[in-house]
Amino acid sequence: MSVLRLEGVFTSTIGSFPLDDTVDNRRKCIDDLISVGIDFPAYPQLTDMNKQFLDDLLDQDVGLIFENGEYRMSGEDLQEPRSVPGLDILLWTIQYLEKTGMRRTVSIKAPITGPFTLASCIRRGKGIFPFNTAVSNPRLVRRIADIVMMCCREASRYAEMIAIDEPILSVIVGSRSIFGYEEDIIRIFNDLREACGERIVGTHICGRISPKLSRLLLKTNLDFLSHEFYDTPKNIEVYQPEELRKNEKILSVGCISASDVHVETIDEILDLMMRFRDYDNCIIFTPDCGFRKLSAQNLSKEEAYAISIKKLKNMVEAAKRFSYLR
Q1: How buried is residue 120: exposed, middle or buried, by Cβ count under 10 Å (0-12/13-18/19+)?
Q2: What average pLDDT does range 204-231 have in this prediction?
């Protein structure tokens, strides 16, 4: 594990925003995140996090096809892609920041969809989810992990922070692991972390985090663990400060809802933040998840986006007050 290089209170974003993926919207999103004062803004992930990587693999003929609205394997295995998939938006962001003269002052976070979640999007065989997907096969998960390692190596050339997004893990690791490959989870996370070199690397897993999953994550070499705590307050009970300290982990706390249109007040956010005042000398505050779900709340994409920025402004101000009070 690398020596943690962060100390203090920081803010970041998870990824998605409820806007169409256009150049103008990318500019708007990254400019707004910088203006709001986010310490580690994620690149503008304005497309589906799974499609972002899987569509690139489709184009490279690695043994993946899209049929009847589903990703499927055309054979028994996946081939190594000719080029690194899914990072066009990261590269665009870096070029934009260089062109505008902001690159030296902005620390970018790169969300990378993890191998377990990507595997859960690839249909194979019959049955019910997730048993009918590639995530049920450790060999295929490992194959996809090798591809994601390529993404990690490339992203580490540009991004200061990297997040392996694995929402499926809160589904497949509850009171027990439905596929029984706990050691594979630890090993794959450690391999991905190593592929990122000296960058700050963690995982974002939304949903309810089971004690079993938290114990697995603490055993990894990841630097930070990112979860939702606002809409899933039960997660507050999952980690104890001494556990994180012993395992050299930074907690990344989701402190505003990513799906409720209510704009949390600064005081509401600060109340939640203060429950983490004893969590060592470094903590990161984020939304619970990406904001894409806001567009499903009978709002236009522009209205949903405006709400997400208001939430982030209050989060940044609450983090400033938290830093002063802790």
Answers
A1: buried
A2: 97
